[in-house]
Write a structure and sequence with these properties.
It is built from 14 helices and 13 strands. The protein is of the alpha/beta class. The longest helix has 26 residues. The protein is elongated and about 80 Å long.
């Protein structure tokens, strides 16, 4: 997977999750887009008695404000919203698109200056609202560009994730300034207009959501303690037990992981490699980035952890009766969690292929092999590229009695591998019924 799927470690920025089938149109994105567009439509009757430029500017500002409120709400990671979008990975993808849309809309509002003698509660509040709006504009432009541009153009400099994360927290404060601005700035409609009510609802939603995200570490996290650490060639395998309420997660889901120890307190998303009935969890984290390397060196038995989850919809029970699981490198972690829970009565035939560059980096082989020996509905193949050569679609087809054209392909690993396998199967006339994967960027 690209930086983190399956519990992969991440470089300076994160990628975790998987998008199902690659389609981006979801019920959640449709509803959010309609709500944003509705703000623009409501602005027309409210300001159309002015001039075209003012109408256009306030349509843009109204849509931008609603989009900001929705983005703040999405940042709370509500479970029912995750279902509407088909996974937290899609929420973050749409969240990024909203950020780009907001940037464009506030630039329109800024450069197409409204020209009217509007209504205001008091001249003092109007002046303060104007100042708040100006500061919020400059702040939003800076932070949104920082979120969108990961790498400085024409250089190799990549903005470190930890710096982005700290600055991104200020967006909520900027939204509060914008809410104050839209409520008290001069405008060509009074507080009884439908547009005013609509914007005030999203102001309340956005401010409440921001307050909730600040309380999130205390409301939705679980306390754990490291019970075991194994530094495998391919990953750091961490086992932790709950010290209070246990984490609620399904095999294949991921959680936000933080060690309450100097240098390791920054929360990172990792796929859960295993979860037991008593709440015991395992993570397999490949040391790819600064944080994961520091984690490998610094984590120890007895360290307190803070976990939040589970998130994601990468669970084979949603799939068809025939499935091919393809794991690349550290992308094996969700499959490790799912395979360990198989009992043979799922009504699904599953063939798994685990691709590694070198056999020394493979993890969880005992689990996969024991399940393959014990269960009649699960088969397993390890592909070692160092000895078996490059893995491709023809090898996938020849390595299983299952016809890929009659099966779902569940994938977690580097995107180039997935794209090559999808293309190869299509060329062979054996394109799978559907492809399930998670692709997730947190910035």
């Amino acid at each position: 997977m690209t930086n983190v799927m399956g519990l992969a470690s991440m470089p300076a920025f994160r990628t975790v999750g998987c998008t199902c089938g690659g389609h981006t149109l979801t019920a959640g994105s449709i509803v959010a887009t309609v709500l944003i567009a509705l703000a623009g439509l409501l602005a027309v009757p409210a300001v159309s008695h002015t001039n075209a430029g003012t109408t256009f500017s306030l349509m843009a500002s109204s849509m931008a404000f609603v989009a900001m409120g929705i983005a703040q709400f999405m940042a709370t990671r509500p479970p029912f919203i995750e279902k509407l979008f088909g996974g937290l990975d899609r929420i973050y993808q749409f969240h990024r698109k909203i950020g780009i849309a907001v940037l464009c809309l506030i630039l329109v509002h800024y450069f197409v200056t409204p020209d009217f003698q509007g209504l205001s509660l008091t001249s003092g509040s109007n002046r303060l609202a104007k100042t708040a709006g100006e500061w919020a504009f400059y702040g939003f432009v800076f932070l949104l560009i920082l979120s969108i541009v990961k790498v400085i153009p024409k250089t190799r400099f990549q903005i470190p994730y930890q710096y982005w994360r700290v600055t991104h927290r200020f967006i909520g404060l900027l939204f509060v300034l914008v809410a104050f601005h839209q409520m008290f700035i001069k405008r060509p409609y009074d507080s009884t207009a439908l547009l005013a009510t609509y914007l005030n609802l999203f102001a309340l939603l956005g401010v409440a959501s921001y307050a909730y995200t600040q309380l999130l570490p205390w409301l939705r996290t679980r306390k754990y303690e490291v019970a075991d650490v194994v530094r495998h060639d391919g990953a750091t395998i961490i086992t932790a037990k709950p010290t209070g309420r246990k984490l609620k997660a399904l095999p294949g889901q991921f959680g936000f992981f933080r060690v309450n120890k100097s240098g390791l307190r920054e929360p990172h998303p990792f796929t859960i490699a295993g979860i037991e009935d008593d709440g015991t969890v395992r993570f397999a984290i490949k040391p790819l980035g600064d944080y994961t390397k520091a984690l490998r060196e610094g984590v120890a038995v007895g360290d307190p952890l803070t976990l939040e989850g589970g998130y994601g919809h990468f669970n084979h029970r949603r799939g068809g009766n025939k499935q091919i699981w393809l794991a690349g490198g550290i992308g094996v972690t969700p499959f490790l969690a799912m395979a360990s829970r198989l009992k043979g009565d799922e009504g699904q035939d599953i063939h798994m292929v685990y691709c590694v560059r070198d056999g020394a980096e493979a993890i969880g082989l005992d689990t996969f092999r024991k399940q393959a020996e014990k269960l009649g509905n699960f088969s397993f193949v390890l592909h070692n590229s160092a000895t078996d050569g490059r893995f491709d679609a023809s090898k996938l087809v020849s390595g299983t009695a299952m016809n890929p054209a009659e099966a779902d392909l569940w994938f977690c690993g580097p995107p180039p591998l997935r794209l090559a396998i999808e293309k190869g199967l299509k060329d062979l006339g054996k394109a799978p019924r559907r492809v399930e994967f998670e692709r997730f960027e947190f910035r």
